[in-house]
Amino acid sequence: MGINGILTKRNTPTVAYLTNIKSFFWDGRASSLEEQATIPITNPHEMGLTMKEVISRLSSDTSYVSWFNEVYQQLPDSATISSALAAFQQTLVYRTSPYDLYIQHQDSSKMSAKALHGVRLFFGKARCSQCHKGADFADGDFRNIGINSGDAGRVDFTENPEDLRKFKTPTLRNI
Asked: Is the N or C terminus of the chain more exposed, i.e. has fewer CB atoms within 10 Å?
């Protein structure tokens, strides 16, 4: 749900584990973390602001002025705001789950028998790891998994008919 109770087109993907991602949003319409960080601000259904309004608000707050001067040696502008948001989002990585402790130390005592069974299924018979790969369990690829919700998916961004109903593989971290 966005501003004024307006329903947005899609649920928001997580902002955690974005450091190694190459494209952002379910349809991949942003190609950098900095670009991704500002799109919701100016989207009329999400925050509904202009960057001029954001710059004005931040520039009228002495704390933000001080922080931007300290980090960027200047007042907030579009580039420094998107850089600051992207830098913050890069910190949203958590590696202390029982699974992480198991993988880091091969210490199965950190996980229940059911969780260990789930790991074996995930990487084995269930074949989840074919799409949910790597440290963050997301390969960054786009797939049509056969759900027709009325949302055309990536094709709205790429205009390539092969992208109909394709969406980015989400991370399965911490779900």
From this structure: C
